[in-house]
Amino acid sequence: MERHHFTVILEREEEGGYHAFCPALRGCHTQGDTLEEALAHVREAIAAYLESLRKHGEAVPVEADRGVYIRRR
């Protein structure tokens, strides 16, 4: 199985919980009540996104930089 690395951004929401998204994968957003839950959800969302790309014969984006960033508002 191929391994891919993508930047994930986590933002604390004013009403509670976290918004998580992957900028390299347009529209790949999710949320979670805790930081751990948001990370688990974004991993699942990325996996589903990549599966959809493969199913439709589309290329998987390659990202040069990688990391996890947490923005606190």
Helices and strands, with pairings:
Elements: E1 8-12, E2 18-21, E3 29-32, H1 35-55, E4 68-71
Parallel strand pairs: 1-4
Antiparallel strand pairs: 1-2, 2-3
Q: What report would you give on this structure?
A:
- This protein is α+β, with helices and mostly antiparallel strands.
- The protein contains one helix and four strands.
- The chain has a single domain, classed as Double Stranded RNA Binding Domain (2-Layer Sandwich).
- The chain is 29% helix and 23% strand.
- It has a four-stranded mixed sheet with strand order 3-2-1-4, covered by helices on one side.
- The protein is elongated, with a radius of gyration of 13 Å.
Give a quick precis of the structure.
Helices cover 29% and strands 23% of the residues.
By DSSP (H or I, 4+ residues per run), the number of helices equals: 1
Quaternary structure type: single chain
Helicity, as a percent range? 25-40%
Structural class: alpha+beta
How many structural domains?
1
Strands ordered across the widest β-sheet:
3-2-1-4
Q: Might you state the CATH topology name?
A: Double Stranded RNA Binding Domain
Based on CA atoms alone, the radius of gyration comes out at 13 Å
Unreliable residue runs: none
Biggest sheet statistics: 4 strands, mixed
The mean pLDDT is: 89
CATH class: Alpha Beta
Task: Report, as a whole number of angstroms, the end-to-end distance.
Answer: 37 Å
Architecture per CATH nomenclature, i.e. the level-2 architecture: 2-Layer Sandwich
Order of helices and strands: EEEHE
> What's the total count of β strands?
4
Shape: elongated
Approximate strand percentage: 15-25%
